[in-house]
Structures are given as C-alpha cells and as structure tokens.
C-alpha cells in the first residue's frame, strides 16, 4: 500500500530530494507538498542575477506546477503549515489537517532582522525570496533612489551589486573590519572592497548601525558614530536563522537547527528533515552543496535503502560579475600552519594557500580564480603536496616540471615580453636603454621609464640589468624598510602618495608585501605615513604603535610607566604643582623628577593606575606631555622680556604659542623646540630641531640642530620680522618634515638628505607653498590635536583598556 | 588532563592586540591575530621580563616591547639567534568565547 508522504517547504532541498526519491522508488508514496511561497521551486541562488537583470525569473524555475503534476504530487502552494500533531500524525494549515505516514520538514531558514529602532518601517526588507527581489527591482525603478545594504557578506554584496547595476546609489554598512570576513582574509577583502568601490558602491566597514529613521517610511540609517546615510530602501542581510519554529512547537529535538542523524531522521522516527532548517553533528548549513548530499541520503532513507550523510568541505564564490573570488577550507592561522602568498598588484591578483602537515587545508583567491577547483580538490582529497610545494601556487599548469630558476625564466623571455606594466616597457626596450648607457635602476627609470611608476617590477628590471651587464652589474643597496618588502622608506612614501594608498591593507597589497600583516618595524612607519598623508581618510591604528604611544606613557624596565603632563613653555602655577603633588602621593609615585625639558616627570606608575592619574591631572587642567611620542615634546623657553633685563622679545609667550599650535601632531621622530629671548641663549635653542633666537629686529629661526646621539648647531632657515611669521615658518617646516622624512629620522638627518636649500625653497622662497603647508597642517591638527588622556574618556573604555581580561583563581577552579 | 577555563569573549581583545589574564602563578597574555585566532603565552619575556602583551602583534608572533625579541605564538620560541622560549598554553574559541587550558599552570602553582 502506498504511504502518505507530506513535505513542508518547496525549496531547493525538497526539490532535489523529491527528484531523487521518484528516481529510486517511483510511486512508492502519495505525496502532498506545502509551500509558504505561492509558487514551486526555483533556483534560489540565481536570485542575484535576476536582481541585476542578467536573468529572468522564468529562467531560474527548476520545478514548476506542471513538473509536480507529472509526478503525481498534490501541491498546496501559498499555504503555510502552522502546526504538526505528532500524536495523530497530521499537519495543520489554515485550511485544515492533512494526515501523514512520513513527514519531511524542509522549511529552509529565515533572514535575521536586527531589532533596532525603525526596523519595521516600510522600505526595510530582507533578501531571501522572489518577492524580496521584486521589491528591490521596483525600488530601483524610481530615478535617484538610494539604498543601504546592512551586511557585507555574500548576500549583502550580491544585493548591493545588483541594485547598483539597476542604477541605484548604494551604500554597504558592515560591522566587521573587512568584507566577507567569514570567507575572506583581509587582503582579499581589501581587493573586493576596491573593486566594488570602483563600481560606485560606497562601503563602510567597522560600522555599526544604531537606528533606521523616517516618518512612516524609511528615510535613512543612523550609525553608532552619528553618521546619517539617507536611503529609500534598506536591505538587511546580516545572517539567517534555521526555520525551526514548526519542529520546536511539535516537540522535536532542536538546537540551532532541527536535530537530524546521519539518515536525516529527526528525534521522531517518522519525521525527516533536511536543508537549512537542520542541524547535523553541531553544524548548520547555508550553501547548497551539502544540502544536495542530504537530499540523496533522505531519498534513500525514505526508499528503505541504507545511506549516511557525510559532511563535506564547501567552497564559496561571489556571484558578482567581474569580482572573481574563491575561498575554501580553513584559512585561519594556527599552530603548525604555513602560508604561501602570491600577489600581483598590477593585475589585482591575490592568492593565499594554507598548508598543514604537507596538506593543503585552505585557499583564498582574488582576481584569478581559475585554479580554484583544482585547489579545492587537493583540500578535499587531502593530497600530499610536498613534491609540488615550490610551484603549488602557480596551479596545475606548472606541476610536473622542474623548479623554476628566476634568472633562467627572465633569460627565456622574448624581447617583446612586457616587463614594466605601468609604462608598457618591454624587455627589448630595457636592453636597448642599457646598451645606450643606462647602467643602473635610477638611469633606467630616467630613460626608458621601466619600474618608474609603481616600482613592483624593480626585481625583474634588475634581473634584465644583471643578464645584460653580466659581472659589471652590482645590485644597488637601497635599504629596504624591513624584511617584509624590498622597497625603501622613500619608495614607500612616494608610492603611498602617487598611488593614493590609504590603508595598511592597500600598502601591503599594492606594494607586494611579503608578509601577511607586516612586522614591528614596518607597521609603525606605515601607520605614520598614512596618517600624515591622509589625515582625513586614514584612521590611526593603535595596534601598529609601539607600547608607549599606545599606552600614552613611557614604559620602563620593570613594566611601570612614567607620566608627564604638559607644561606650556615651561610655565606652571601653584595649583598645577599642587595637583601634581597630590597625584604623586595618591598613586605612591616613587620618583618625581624635574626633566631636562622644563617639566615634571612622575616615574614608576602602574598601568592600572594610569587612567586614574590622568583623570586627576586632566581635572586640574593639564594634558598629556606626549613624553613618549614621535611628536612634539617640549618647547623650552627662557623668561624673556617679562623679567629679564636682556630680553628683546616675548620668548616665553612665543614658546607657549608654538607649543599650543604644534602639540598632538605626529611626526617621523620626536621634535623639540626652544625659544631664547636673546643671543645669550638660555633656552639652548641652537641645538634643537627648531630653535628661535629673539633679536631686536625680530626672530632668527634655526632648524636641524641636534644634542642627543649627535651634536650639531642649528642652521638658519630665515629671519622673521614678526611673531606671526616666525610661527608660520616653524609650522611649514614641521609639515614639510612630516610629509617627506623617513620614519625615525630626526629633522637634522632628513635635512642632510634633502639639503637645506630645497627646504628653504619650499618653506621660505615659495610663499604659496608655505601657506599650503600650514593649511595642510591645520587640517591634520583638526583630527589629531587631541589629548590622548582625555580621549580614553568613558569609564568603560578606561576599564577595558587597563584591567585584566580575567582573574583566574587556580585553586577555586578545581 | 585538561582544564579549560572560560576567560572572556573574543570581542574583548582588539584585533592584532592582547589582554592579560591574572593568575596566582603570574600573568598570561592572550593574543588575537588578524585571522581571529587566539594564543596564550606567559606575559613575562624570558629575556628581561618585558610585558609581551604590550608588544606589536604581526602574523602569528609578537615583538617584545623592551628589546624587540620576536616570539612565535605556536612554539613560544624566539626568532633567529635568540635562545629564549616563553611558555605557551592551549587556547581555543568556542561560540565566540575564549577558553584556556590552564592545566600546566595549575600543576606549576601546586608544585
Ligand atoms: C625624562 C628625560 C631625562 C630627564 O630626567 O631629564 C628623558 C628621558 C628619556 N629619554 Fe631623553 N629625556 C629627556 C631629555 C632629553 C634631552 C634634553 C632635552 O630634551 O632638553 C635629550 C637631548 C636632545 C635630543 O632630543 O636629542 C634627550 C635625548 C634622548 C635620545 C637621543 C635622541 C637623538 O636623536 O639623538 C633618546 C633616544 C631616542 O629618542 O631614540 C632619548 C630617550 C629617552 C627615553 C624616552 C628612553 C626610552 O626610550 O625609554 C627616556 C625615558 C625615561 C623614562 O623612563 O621616562 N633621549 N633626552 C628628559 C625628558 C625631557 C622632557 O621634559 O620631555
Ligand atoms: C540571494 C541568495 C543567493 C544565494 N547564493 C548561493 C550560492 O551562490 N551558493 C550556494 O550554495 N547557496 C546560495 N544561497 C543559499 C541557498 O539558496 C540555500 O542554501 C538553499 O536555498 C537552501 O535550501 P532549503 O530548501 O533548505 O531552503 P529554501 O530554498 O529557502 O526553501 C524553503 C522553503 O520552505 C518554505 N517554507 C518555510 N516555512 C514553511 C511552512 N511553515 N510551510 C510551508 N512552507 C514553508 C519557504 O517558503 C521556502 O520556499 C543563496 C541564497 C540566497 C537567498
Ligand atoms: S636669554 Fe638672555 S635675556 Fe633672555 S632671558 Fe635668558 S638671559 Fe635673559
Ligand atoms: S625583555 Fe623582552 S626582549 Fe628584553
């Protein structure tokens, strides 16, 4: 006798399962199929091409009413099941009850809607089915309409790309630091972001949404930081939840999804389940490959055959035309894991393989994903790759040959092979230039322009030089920043400006960094270059700063810190001194010292006391002295005209003005100033980075002095008749230094490299340029002139910053 | 024998950063890499006691803030010619929570 089979949900899982079942056991069941959607099964994953207009709904239908009819299935489309009575073995809908012998639950999942204020306004939608897709297409039909997509995962980005193709203005708001963080590492996430930005999609990462605002309908999204993004449509694509409601209400075992065993049977032997609504061995599902495997197993179980579901590896691809990415397996770092990284900045290609015990366990690829399935196969099969390790990253085409000698590879290139992509210079043109007398990289860049732009082909050009010149060629010794790159500081600074690189990811990717995220040598330097060149666009990264700059105090040999408040121009007051004295007593500061820079140092403060001592000093009106920073330290002054019988100008006043103008600006190395009231020079201004000597006729501004590891007198930059001009010259000089010097070069070292004449040309002779420098400094200060002590404002933040994550009592944990 | 202890959530540690767990047997530095992996090492540098939790985190290693020795998270070994090795503790993430296996530390503090 035929058994009654009831199926809840006509989605991709049940569609495939029924196909399998009818092939295995035709006519064994009398099937009734309920679906909440008023239609049969379609290829849900192709909704994105429908959204973008590359396909129509008709083209993605897989099982229509006619197909079900031909198989003898009674279809009840548009009729959601509302309950299951297991005791009586019936399912319940608005129209009545339907009895079953066997029941299959395939209800898929529901999109998660963040319950933020305004989430229920008209115009807020999820992205799950054809109706959502049609709503988006309709919204895009209004000219000038704007959309915000919350969630930068697979679904969110496909929605964003589709809406953009339909002409909407689209912004993606993503909580994590980079796009698709579950499938991609940072480097690939960066390339993807770049490609989407180039299509005109605005992207905010590390951004959390606070509320959706609007009167009666969506008008926009407000972020936690107060930013408002106007929108007519908001698509929430922040994740899915398995559709477990029916199963739970019926009393089945349910965790994150409805529990099933290897045979796809739930805790009730007559009820089976599959697809996104289930949980198998702790895992839930969001891609079709494992679900199709389940469909096979479920069909066999129903047909009385034995089969077991085995979890498989899944690979991800993004269906946005022109954004080729691929990710599979496990690409996190971990014990015993090794990375092989390949970057080709000019083509925007990035590939990373993760190896463990001579096996490939993960792969991330962007730009060139042709070998994706080959790598995926190696991962699935657990192939031993030790034999092909050296050429593995080049894909299957390179296997079986011998390891490549890079020199031999360049020698084998034909003369018309392009070496420098930016300037289109071929190997033959480079050889011709060498024969014409260009015998080093510099000369080649000047003549045939090879490697003169992005510089990433420098290594290749050098190999052509070496091959052409033979023993006459000596590799130039441009000091690279560190082991992570072959580029020098100067090259990196130039490329950050010319290629408009505005994030650390951009630098690592576009300049072909050899490590994943730099090291302790390059990270602080790159962080500085980026914030100096792009103060408005780049966000300072505390994790790329040396401990002193991260903790706003100077670390000492026993792990305690020194705290030093600013004393503007060396001037203090009885109440400031009292506050310092009180703080020293309150926090049991072991040493209080007057420094060589005219201020008071509290040495030996514990990290957990730092926020408290800062708060006390802040309350007394003092700010951080930046005694730890690559930034402005002190401006030493003498007493000047106010008291001294020799004083010619208000040296104390000018010192205070300079300190108030310059503090907080990050610089390549520390910067110290002094202003003396007359040539007797009591403030020792002639050995400072910038030292001003006041004279009757005005101000002598000297620069590039030193009194530390080297001793050097300042050189005269210019004489300024007025105080304003002295200040303007000083600021312009500091900004020129900020924009051009190598990280950790004091001004005297930098000036020795570029020459004082060039500096004078920029700062003194060219008045427009001077004003432009001052203006850029002002813009930077609008962001960076902030007291770091005051910045860590909220109690919460101070606590999280200075207290242990946990205190573990080993005894009690018994 | 293992002794997994929940010490906090992953979000509490900045990416490429560290936080400290205080125990009777000394502080442990818990690091979070850019790939969202966690590692636990003694917070005290075997060279001259520098607080490793204050170092710059890169790849799967940290640079001591006092004299720049670089320690690999996986093994605790200093890079290059430096002979120092710092103790490591098994760490894992489960549903966004960080778990440390403090069995070794317990044995040490009992001894
Ligand atoms: C506190 C102070 C000594 C004092 O007790 O007077 C001091 C203390 C330190 N100096 Fe200094 N310098 C201090 C005035 C000086 C001076 C004189 C001055 O500023 O008038 C110089 C010579 C001028 C100069 O800057 O070159 C000076 C030249 C140095 C140098 C060598 C710099 C160079 O380029 O040659 C270093 C090393 C470095 O910065 O790389 C240094 C580094 C240091 C460090 C930060 C070492 C470190 O990295 O931990 C010391 C921190 C001690 C601590 O634990 O807090 N200190 N140091 C002075 C703070 C002045 C202030 O109020 O900010
Ligand atoms: C836009 C988009 C793009 C995607 N892209 C990819 C991709 O590139 N690759 C990939 O592998 N996967 C992709 N997916 C995921 C893939 O579509 C799902 O994994 C797959 O559809 C899950 O199948 P399912 O049958 O479990 O659920 P569904 O296909 O969602 O089917 C469930 C059906 O059950 C119905 N239902 C729910 N409750 C009831 C009820 N009480 N009564 C009756 N009917 C009910 C629903 O209306 C629905 O029709 C994408 C998904 C979307 C939305
Ligand atoms: S510089 Fe000379 S004049 Fe000026 S205060 Fe010092 S001693 Fe007096
Ligand atoms: S204390 Fe760590 S390197 Fe010296």
From TrEMBL, chain A:
Quick one: which pathway? Answer: Nitrogen metabolism; nitrate reduction (assimilation)
UniProt domain BFD-like [2Fe-2S]-binding: residue ranges: 419-466, 481-530
Record-annotated residues binding [4Fe-4S] cluster? 638, 644, 678, 682
Identify the keywords attached in UniProt to this record, alphabetized: 2Fe-2S, 4Fe-4S, FAD, Flavoprotein, Heme, Iron, Iron-sulfur, Metal-binding, Nitrate assimilation, Oxidoreductase
Show where the Nitrite/sulphite reductase 4Fe-4S domain sits: 630-765
Record-level Gene Ontology MF annotations: 2 iron, 2 sulfur cluster binding; 4 iron, 4 sulfur cluster binding; flavin adenine dinucleotide binding; heme binding; metal ion binding; NADP binding; nitrite reductase activity
Cofactor binding annotation:
Binds 1 [4Fe-4S] cluster per subunit.
Using the record's annotation, list all stretches that form the Nitrite/Sulfite reductase ferredoxin-like domain: 556-619
Q: Per its UniProt record, what Gene3D superfamilies does this chain match?
A: 3.30.390.30, BFD-like [2Fe-2S]-binding domain, FAD/NAD(P)-binding domain, Sulfite Reductase Hemoprotein, domain 1
NADH-rubredoxin oxidoreductase C-terminal domain sequence ranges: 315-382
GO biological process, any: nitrate assimilation
Its needed co-factors are:
[2Fe-2S] cluster; [4Fe-4S] cluster; FAD; siroheme
InterPro entries membership: BFD-like_2Fe2S-bd_dom, BFD-like_2Fe2S-bd_dom_sf, FAD/NAD-bd_sf, FAD/NAD-binding_dom, FAD/NAD-linked_Rdtase_dimer_sf, NasD-like, NiRdtase/SiRdtase_haem-b_fer, Nit/Sulf_reduc_fer-like_dom_sf
Q: Which domain of life is it from?
A: Bacteria
What are the residue boundaries of the FAD/NAD(P)-binding domain, all occurrences included? 4-278
Provide the binding site for siroheme: 682
Q: Which NCBIfam families does the record cross-reference, listed alphabetically?
A: nitri_red_nirB
Name used for this protein in its record: NAD(P)/FAD-dependent oxidoreductase
Give the species this sequence originates from.
Answer: Mangrovicoccus algicola
UniProtKB/TrEMBL annotation, chain B:
Gene Ontology terms describing biological process:
nitrate assimilation
Looking at the keywords, is Iron-sulfur present? Answer: yes
List the Gene3D superfamilies hit by this protein, alphabetically: Rieske [2Fe-2S] iron-sulphur domain (2.102.10.10)
Q: Which SUPFAM superfamilies match?
A: ISP domain
Question: From which domain of life does this come?
Answer: Bacteria
InterPro entries (UniProt xref): Rieske-like_NirD, Rieske_2Fe-2S, Rieske_2Fe-2S_sf
The record places domain Rieske at 4-100
> Which Pfam families does the record match to this protein?
Rieske_2 (PF13806)
* CDD domains xref list: Rieske_NirD_small_Bacillus
Q: List the Gene Ontology MF annotations in alphabetical order.
A: 2 iron, 2 sulfur cluster binding; metal ion binding; nitrite reductase [NAD(P)H] activity
- Coiled-coil regions listed in the entry: none
Write the protein's name: Nitrite reductase small subunit NirD
Q: Which UniProt keywords apply?
A: 2Fe-2S, Iron, Iron-sulfur, Metal-binding, Nitrate assimilation, Oxidoreductase
Q: Which organism is it from?
A: Mangrovicoccus algicola
